[in-house]
Structure formats: structure tokens, C-alpha cells
Amino acid sequence: MTDAILTARHLTKQFTTRGDGAFIAGTSTFTAVDDVSFEVPRGRTLGIVGESGSGKSTTARIVAKLIDATSGTLEFDGVDVTQARGRALAAFRSNVQVVFQDPFSSLNPRHTVEKIITAPLDYQGISPAGGKRALVRELLERVGLNPDHAQRYPAQFSGGQAQRIGIARALAVSPKLVICDEAVSALDVSVQAKVINLLNSLQAELGLSYVFIAHDLAVVRQIADTVAVMSRGRIVEQGDRDAIFERPQHDYTKALLAAVPKIDPEWELRRARMLAEEGAGA
């Protein structure tokens, strides 16, 4: 039996829309997530992949308990958190953090890096040993940023650096699970590789589990251990990463893989080595 940090069973999310009364009367229901089940192995990465509108980001929001599922259950570290409220919800959120797609949209432009990173600590009422300032310096160094830049503002950083700040913020409360919702899609390819290398090294160092949401199969292959493929709100195929990529069973998965540009193998090997060297020094 798999040692799962998170188990989702039959998650469904429906949204109700109301007509304006002039051209559209009454209400209608849209099912964004439809009977979705999966596990996130402890210390490993589940990649959820699909096109825009497939329901993957809504699934991420349910897993992070930013929104409630219409039906289904969510179990975290052996505890049912489906209906968690109050202290139980606060405890869950200290263990589950999110890294969002656009780092600049998710970082308050009026706050210094130090204030951004310590915000989860303030929300949880946590006073780290050694003080918040020391923790901020440690986290900035851990994600490859200059600790002396803690008093700077988000606009003073590049996109890749801003996303590292978002990762540092997620790590501030020592979570067990980090949800990366299209966390590298807004970055250049070379920067994507460095951030993925950072996430991989943090996982090895801290024993983190990830739910990694993406539309880019090439990115998913670099980080995921298991993969769930979503289409129209449903998981159409899931399993071991190599099995999904080398022996896809569902026509939708095959179509996604067929859309990935084919690259000369020798050139790709040289590129992979170059990015690995860059990542080691990032």
C-alpha cells in the first residue's frame, strides 16, 4: 500500500451561474472537476497535466482548501480534512502551502521581501527560534537569493528571483506538501530549468511532497514521479511517469504527447547537461 501524504477521493466541484434576466434566464451548473481521485506519495511529486480549462487548477485550489469541493473527500497525513474549519484548517494550512503561477501577482508590491516571507508566520502565530529575521536570511540563502536583499521590494527582482521568493514564503512554516500551480509557466525556459532544479533539491533536502500543476508535458517529465492527465474535469489516465510518457493508453494523452515538439536527441542531451550545470550553480 502506498504511503500517501494526501489522498483525494471522488472530488467534484460544480459552479452555478445565473443569467442576467435579459438574454439568459434562470441558472446553470458547470462541473469543473468531475469525480477525481488520486494519491500524492510521501516525499514524491504528483504531476497533474492538461490543457487550459481541463480542471487542473480548480483541483489544486480544492487540495489547498482555498475552495471547498461540492462532493468527495480529502485526507491529509491520515486525517480527513474535507470539512476542516477553525484550528483544524489553520493546522492544515501550515502543512500545505502554494506557489502560484505569476510571482509578481502573488507578492504584495508594497511589502519588503522580509515581510512577504514572514506573512505565513504572522498568520499562524509562529515565532521561530532565533527570530524571524534570521529565518528569512536562511530561507533566502536556501532558495539561492542574497540574504542581504531582504529589505528590497518585488519589483527589484527578475521573474525567476520573484518566484524563488514565493518558494521561500511557502517554506517559512515548514510545510509537508507544496502545491505548485503552473509555478514555472510564466518563466523563460532556462529559468524554468533552474527553478525545477531548486524544487528537486529542496525535496531531497527537506522531504517535501509536491502537487505540480502544468500544461507543459516536458516540464512535468522533469519533476514528476507519478502523473495524472486531466481533460474536461476528469482524470483520463494516471500512473508512473515513465509509463505515461512511453506507453500512453488514452487518446488524449497520446495527442498531448504528439503535440510536444520533437528535438534532435544529441542536441537535447547537450542542453540537459548545460541546464544541469546551471542548476547546480543556481
Automatic annotation (TrEMBL):
Stored Pfam families = ABC_tran, oligo_HPY
Concerning InterPro entries, the annotation shows: AAA+_ATPase (IPR003593), ABC_transp_ATP-bind (IPR050319), ABC_transporter-like_ATP-bd (IPR003439), ABC_transporter-like_CS (IPR017871), Oligopep_ABC_C (IPR013563), P-loop_NTPase (IPR027417)
Please explain the role this protein plays, according to its UniProt record: Part of the ABC transporter complex GsiABCD involved in glutathione import. Responsible for energy coupling to the transport system.
Complex and partners: The complex is composed of two ATP-binding proteins (GsiA), two transmembrane proteins (GsiC and GsiD) and a solute-binding protein (GsiB).
Catalytic activity, as annotated? glutathione(out) + ATP + H2O = glutathione(in) + ADP + phosphate + H(+)
Question: Does Cell membrane appear among the keywords?
Answer: yes
Mind listing the UniProt keywords for this protein, alphabetically?
ATP-binding, Cell inner membrane, Cell membrane, Hydrolase, Membrane, Nucleotide-binding, Repeat, Translocase, Transport
Ranges where the ABC transporter domain occurs = 17-257
Entries under SMART domains matching the protein: AAA
Q: What is this protein called?
A: Glutathione import ATP-binding protein GsiA
**Species assigned in the record:** Agromyces salentinus
